[in-house]
Records
---
Amino acid sequence: QVQLVESGGGLVQAGGSLRLSCAASGRTFVNYAMAWFRQAPGKEREFVAAISRNGGATYYADSVKGRFTISRDNAKNTVSLQMNSLKPEDTAIYYCAARFFAFTGAVLTRLSDYPTWGQGTQVTVSS
């Protein structure tokens, strides 16, 4: 079981960029499918982006496609989310999620797919 710690959140103006990082403990990070979700005030947690165990497959929510990029470094046990062209509606707490998964090239996109979560990092985009 990995433990996840997010970092990199903050306050940014619309049109700006932020890079979120998620550090995972443990030596089996390569066996985990990873994803980012977010939760805005008063709303349900929603999928943002996912990446396969080997990094070869990624998937994005339509709302962030073309603006956000998910990546991972299995040697450093990290997964990142590069967020460009940020909009006020991107304001939310962003969570990193992990699932031990048998398939190397598949992505998981449902909230219920992920049993392990970080504590979240706040992203605020001002207009």
Note: The longest strand covers residues 92-100.
---
Amino acid sequence: QVQLVESGGGLVQTGGSLRLSCTASQIAFSLYIMKWYRQTPGKERELVAVVTRGDGTDYADSVKGRFTISRDNAKDTVFLQMNSLKPEDTAVYYCNAQRTATQYWGQGTQVTVSS
């Protein structure tokens, strides 16, 4: 059974940092594009960051310069380093693995940034 398990969320003050991790099982991890999304109540899920199979990266404008996505194929894990956090970064963060039309989601991890 495919699983994506996120960890690293929590409560942090404005300006602080968190590092999210997402470890995959039962997939050929290196063949997947890995993404982080976030969602707040009443809003659509928002794409935050992408890392391709070749380690290319892309970011939402709202997080450029503050967040860094990376992957470790040897550990089947994708990371999201979040610095200079703002209250508007508060959301549930989801890991996503995509390969052509196939995609999998993690269960989400809560990030709360206090002002």
Note: The CA atoms of residues 4 and 24 lie 5 Å apart.
